[in-house]
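Me: Here is a favour to ask of a fellow structure person. Could you put it straight underneath, so I can go through it closely?

Assistant:
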Amino acid sequence: METTRQHPIEQMEKIENQYLVNHVESGLPRWLIEAAFVSYLLQAVVSWTDVSLWMEGHRLAWLSGIVRTFGSMVMYIGLMRGMKSLYRPFTVWWWLVIVLNFAGFLTDSIPSISDSVGLPVAVSLMLVYLPLGSAIAINYRGRLRQVGIWMVLYILISSLLPVIVVLLFEPDQLWAYLLLEISTVAAIVVFAWVQRQVLI
């Protein structure tokens, strides 16, 4: 009688554990994950408009491309590898994100192709980040859910918010542009942190 009563509870706990994911085993060395996190922090610095324009002016677009890509590529590969053992790994979606980030690296590094393919790559990234982030946030709990939520916020803040600010505010309204800069930097840092927390 006692065992019959406990059986549904044990089953519920098993289901709960399937959804609750605070850590995934990526197989990547700790130093590489930490290097990717530092790269994200540098990406936050490079994303500040003045720094970005200075780098472009000094023909350092290739360096900017590496900084913007290295951290995310390492983290995404780590998450893809770590999620393979989960009930919904989203491997195809992760591959799409990785390929599009590499395409983003090429557009960042080679200014001559940026004008022709930059916008399609940015739109494609948004069309992949939003469903993948939403799917992770809906299907999992714990720290992995935070990765999904911040993936969505990260792409919205870095891709849509600049368009909204440019459309709604005049260039002399510096507070709006300052808010945009701070929001972008904060989104990058928080997104990096939640990924790191799941991987280490």
Summary: The mean pLDDT is 84. The CA atoms of residues 37 and 192 lie 6 Å apart. The radius of gyration is 19 Å.
